[in-house]
């Protein structure tokens, strides 16, 4: 990559672009990350040397905890610079991620919640550390709404009943349980995770590109939700994020250290049940 | 609830309405149960104190064994009093259950077969006792047809291959196997089941209602089958239930104690293979 | 059956037609197999004594390894003699298999890859030997394309993420992992496989035919992919099979014994990663 990123580092090796999300203090989604993701998709779209992207995190505790609740307007404005006039949301940008030229693999070693979970589902595949991977969609428990694809993806990946449990329960899911219901491809012991993902990514990177791209496109055509449904969900997120009903709960979370490196973020699922 | 039920008991606690199906001698679906379900849905629709309904059974052996084959006309007539002019079936009433204002959780400790299984799938989530939960769709083995949603739900929850095995095989599934294929959310050891369901139900009952209802509605929009498909299945049930082809097998089942507290009901799957 | 098959043997017992694929040297799909499959479907369509078909293999190593790459034109020409003017592909013939009058069960004891895997998904149910069953969709790794239904079936059976891993990864899946992601109904220990399949097949064969056929038809209506999508995939296979991009990899495979009883076929997934 001849471009510079502010929220991630990149390294190209054997056709695989290793992208490490590195946006201190804790990888919250903000305008820097959204801009970098747009740049990354733009650059890899025209670069046939990057056949596979692996996303990981430089922070051992957090992959992406969720969006920065104080920067929704800012990152949404940046997201709106990508795609067409109806694609002004994080969900629409994630759709571009799903339709990216390279194959995308998420390697999860910490927590991915909210729009961090939705980032995972937008990738083509996702593998999590058995010991350290945690996924959650806590939006409903906060009083907001999963507006970047979780509803649509989870029904298709896990079925209606499990989608209800994940989303209405708003709790944390460890890697083993996430594998069981189909949230992720596999839960893999920490010491085997990097070798597994490396082998798979480098394997695919060697395969003929025309075949890989065509298969990805056709799997997406059958497996991705209609764009319109994610647009509707994006709209509901914007409405509920401004609604009073979530204010009291967000205030209670803030008292407990929400959006800081605290128990509120480390054990979000538990804390949500306590307030 | 200020109403009286004939086939169930209710208790509201911490925003959770505990409904225990109590319709002796063995919880067969009849006109009393259907009327009570309609009343329950009507009442909870306007009651914002009931945020979650948990369905369980007062009978340790049977959640709902199936419909009372001698009362199909009676309960169908009652079901027809609910909903619109095209919604004259148990399947249409179950659809109202799926779209209920409260979140619904089924807690299965005994047998749920036929329209009892379909009741489970209509709920938002379902958890079963690892030791005692049993699910079956024995209709095809009897020569009738699963007309209240099983076909549509199972394809979406379990995939086409597993749906074929459950429905064409007409056998009993224990909780562990039911979890494996996605029929239920989880199989939980009996002594942990009530605490688990209580914690989940009370957790959701505390979350902001606007967010919960919206998420439920959107998950349903993506995950429920089209109403028309269930209507078609309802029609096929009515046709096959009157067809001669099932008469011989129902007679053979009757000889073995069908619709009584006998081995034919306790071990339905096995008995069906013997006749 | 009053007909003679060149690539399979048949035996009718207790309403179950046991079909053993027997097409030496290694059960590659060729014009003989396609013709026999057409004949089998034609004959069983009018034979109410055959209620269930079980497909197995006479070759302990190979169920169906894949199509004979040297006979694509030949078997496609034969496939074109079945079905309507738009149904000129193996995928369309497999659709006829999915919609067959008898219930179909695949019993997998060796390797099924490529169009062999797609044969499995077209069947109503599939059970594999825990020790010996292997499934793979190696097309993309070869530079060709799974054109007989894998893309469409896998998204529906396994979800988008697992479909990406199976198809883009192009690797072998053992029976246990295949069960985990929903590729097959069950992985069953070798010494229990035949008794299990026999019991299930004979059980269904005793059930009233009208109910069985109706349920199968309705499950298919909800669970099979649109024919048009398989037609599109069939077209892509024909294009990529003639494309230069796969020539170098097929040449490399040929050097290693592709389409012979060699390590290239026994350990296809591994060999594909080495070239």
**SS summary, helix count of chain A:** 13
Please report the total strand number of chain A as a whole number: 10
Average pLDDT metric of chain A:
95
Radius of gyration of chain A: 17 Å
User: In whole angstroms, how far apart are the ends of chain A?
Assistant: 45 Å
Overall geometric form of chain A? globular
Helix content of chain A: 40-55%
CATH superfamily of chain A: 2-enoyl-CoA Hydratase, Chain A, domain 1
Give the quaternary arrangement of the chains.
homotrimer
Largest interface: A-B, 36 and 32 residues
Q: Which fold name is given in CATH as the topology of chain A?
A: 2-enoyl-CoA Hydratase, Chain A, domain 1
- Poorly predicted regions of chain A are none
Strand content of chain A: 15-25%
**Could you say which structural class the secondary elements and strand pairing of chain A correspond to?**
alpha/beta
CATH class label of chain A: Alpha Beta
Q: What is the spatial order of strands in the main beta sheet of chain A?
A: 1-2-3-5-7-10
> How many separate domains make up the residues of chain A?
1
| Proper CATH architecture of chain A | Alpha-Beta Complex
């Amino acid at each position: 990559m001849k471009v510079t990123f502010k929220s991630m580092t990149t390294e190209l090796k054997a056709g695989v672009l290793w992208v490490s999300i590195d946006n201190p203090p804790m990888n919250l989604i903000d305008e820097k990350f959204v801009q970098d993701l747009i740049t990354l998709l733009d650059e890899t779209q025209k670069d046939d040397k990057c056949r596979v992207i692996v996303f990981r995190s430089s922070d051992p505790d957090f992959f992406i905890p969720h969006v920065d609740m104080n920067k929704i307007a800012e990152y949404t404005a940046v997201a709106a610079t990508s795609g067409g006039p109806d694609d002004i949301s994080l969900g629409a940008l994630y759709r571009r991620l799903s339709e990216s030229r390279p194959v995308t693999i998420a390697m999860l070693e910490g927590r991915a919640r909210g729009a961090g979970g939705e980032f995972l589902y937008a990738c083509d595949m996702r593998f999590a550390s058995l010991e350290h991977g945690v996924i959650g969609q806590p939006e409903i428990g906060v009083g907001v709404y999963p507006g970047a694809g979780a509803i649509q993806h989870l029904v298709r990946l896990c079925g209606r009943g499990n989608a209800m449990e994940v989303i209405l329960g708003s709790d944390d899911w460890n890697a083993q349980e996430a594998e069981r219901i189909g949230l992720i491809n596999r839960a893999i012991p920490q010491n085997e995770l990097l070798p597994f993902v490396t082998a798979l990514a480098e394997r695919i990177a060697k395969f003929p590109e025309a075949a890989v791209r065509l298969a990805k496109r056709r799997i997406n055509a059958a497996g991705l939700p209609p764009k319109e449904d994610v647009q509707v969900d994006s709209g509901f997120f914007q409405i509920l994020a401004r609604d009073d009903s979530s204010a009291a709960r967000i205030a209670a979370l803030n008292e407990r250290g929400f959006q800081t490196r605290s128990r509120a973020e480390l054990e979000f699922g538990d804390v949500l049940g306590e307030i």
